[in-house]
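Weekly structure sync, notes
Attendees: PL (lead), two postdocs, one rotation student
Agenda item 3: pending single-chain targets
PL asked that the sequence for the first pending target be pasted directly into the notes so everyone works from the same version. It is reproduced below exactly as submitted, 847 residues in total.
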Amino acid sequence: MKLSEAEKNKLKQQVLLSMSYVEKLTLSKRPEEIEGELYGDIWPAVNAHLNTQAHNHAELVEQLGVMRFGHRPKVADTFCGGGSIPFEAARLGCDVYASDLNPIACMLTWGALNIIGADETTREEITAAQRQVAEAVDDEITALGIEHDAQGNRAKAYLYCLETHCPETGWRVPMAPSWVISKTRNICAKLVPNPQAKCFDIEIVRDASTDEMKASGKGTVQAGYLEYTLDGELHRTAIKTLRGDYKKSSGGTGNRLRLWEKSDFTPRPDDIFLERLYCIQWTCSEYDAIKDKTISRTEFRSVTVADLKREAQVEAIVEAQLADWQTQGWVPDMAIEPGYNTDQPIHERGWTHWHHLFNARQLLLHALYFKHRTPEDYIFNAKSLDWNSRIGNWMNQWEKTNNVFYNQALNTFYNYGTRCFTSHEAGRSFGFANSQISNVEKTINNQEACKIDDEYDIFVTDPPYADAVHYHEITEFFIAWLRKNPPEPFKDWTWDSRRALAIKGDGEEFRRNMVDTYTAMADHMPDNGLQIIMFTHQDSGVWADMTNIVWAAGLQVTAAWYIATETTSELKKGGYVQGTVLLVLRKRDGNESAYQDELVQEIREEVQSQIETLIGLNQSQKHNNRDENLFSDADLQMAGYAAALRVLTAYAKIDGMDMTQEALRPKQKGQKTLVDDIIALSVQIANEFLVPEGLDAKIWEKLTNAERFYLKMLELEAEGLTKLDNYQNFAKAFKLSEYDNLMHSVKPNNARLKSAIEFARSEFSGSEFGESPARALLYALMSLQQGKDSEEVMANLRDNVVDYLKQREVLAAVSQYLGKQLAQRSEEASAARVLNGLIRNEKVAGR
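Predicted structure, written out during the meeting:
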């Protein structure tokens, strides 16, 4: 059955809109070039395909691959991470190769391809196996009687907190930043002094009053201090004092915490930090006469003697079984290796082995799941480890534990929640996402990125760079549990993070490793093959490194696509990057040469074109009645880098230098190279377009970098964006080595520039900003706010500004801008409007 022309045209648009990055980028064209050439390049295959009854991407991609490569496209990702790139490529119908040095990344990729991408029959088999494992674990937990009370109610969650002895009073004090248990149901814990035992009993208060909830919101740990009131007296001791922190002579910080031993799983009685069960969430069943059925509800209760007996039973089981479980590989016996992230649990709790991050109940539950494991359960179990650990904080707004890696760190907490079987099992869930993958070749290797042994048509990678997360450290949290007796699909992998081999995101070693990797990819792709690099970074030094890596690998950037990848919100504006650059690389063909002075205009035009495209998209967004920008100022800066990269890498020689050889030469610390200079030029060009709303571009060009920084940050402050990161990022963008002298506050979440009055008479010399017209304007604003006569103010302004008459247009424009942007400082804004009128209306001699 053939389609009508209208049906074919409609389907063409659907295909075009849904084409993945991989498909689009095989064209290696700029967006504006696609419209003209797309039909001649791709639509013959599409038209032939549309005249059949089958209309799926896999068949279309295979036809396109045969046209371009002679076979179904083969896509590779040598930094596969969670496996999203190989998964999407396979879902489109490409053969895929995925590799990663980290076995956790390989396992997640295997899961994406074989669980999420499973067919209906396999999916049903996986679900059935999951149920069998759950039933087996449930039977053992129920037989032990460790989660049920005498009435048959079953525990859903256990809440624990640390305790410590106060050095002032000798009392044992429970530790938590908040005693709120449920915000939605007004449930909190209340500390009741017990003078006889010199400790606090903990009562659970239901239907707490507003005052009780407010009081419980302030726990006994506040801003790094143990803080509590006893007999009307406030006692306050720094946590670092409790730990006994001290500076080591060899560098770093030590403390008096006992380092836990391999056999430990709970604190010892003489440890500085003890641990205490203080609340249990129960699931209770009751008959509802109105609905004529049994319903379930949950309630939080104080801990009873019977509860403590069951707790002791669990600890006895773990103590008796721990060594055997570790031998079997059901519980880890792996030590925590010190590192950037892994030092935290060692220093803050004294934990030395990975199983110390789990309490007795968690160890018992996880051990039972690993005992009954299947290959698929290895992945589900890894997920449940993330949600059931000592370092999973209690979320009182949702009444459940948070996952460990809600951020990329190993944060310790003073109170936490433990999931019982029912809530733990809910976290594993049978309802995993599903999108069946067609019958394509899938290869996963656990190895270094540079070790490629076959040819692939397209490489799509998202490499580590600069301040990349230390995955090689934090994934040891999972490796410790999974490394012994892995199932068949994973048994030949190296179950170690191999920190020494991991590519770190900066320095000479990073450049060398990245050159080896991308050279290997270039050597294993055909002449008409391509590479796509997903790159997101604001540091010009990192982009200079990337340029050298591309050159050294014998590649060139032939296209740079800027894609909006972040959900737009108020928190994403300003200094935050909201997009990702997709760099399209091909083998460098030819031996083109250029001179640096010739490149300047070419780079300027390329950067201008790229940024104007993004600005146009922002304006289009606003035209469609959407207030937010698709791309922030930080995105515009990064787009400028990408445009410069496209120009630079097209040339094999610049100023007579062989850029491939130059790129391979080790870079000396502090050395400025030709590439650094050219990248800096692209920054400068990009910054010319970061004009705050309300300032004319011609005025912006006349300002110093320090003035641009101050005025740009005023715009962000007016939007309520006061994170210090914004100031740091824009200081780099405007090439300011020092900006502290312009800041009233440098608090991480509440940074702010100085106002006119806060500057007072300071910062008038010795710096770019101090000698600028903007600084003179701020002094004039201070004078007006202090009630000085307007003629005196203007006389001082004329004296303080060099070449006043030439700067008068700038002064008028900036004062007008300040009058609008300083709405949060109404008195200063009013003074700016007055000053603007004085400047514009003054009589100038000779006019």
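Discussion points:
- Confidence is low (pLDDT under 50) at residues 14-43, 49-55, 567-577.
- The longest strand covers residues 274-288.
Action: rotation student to compare against the earlier draft before next sync.
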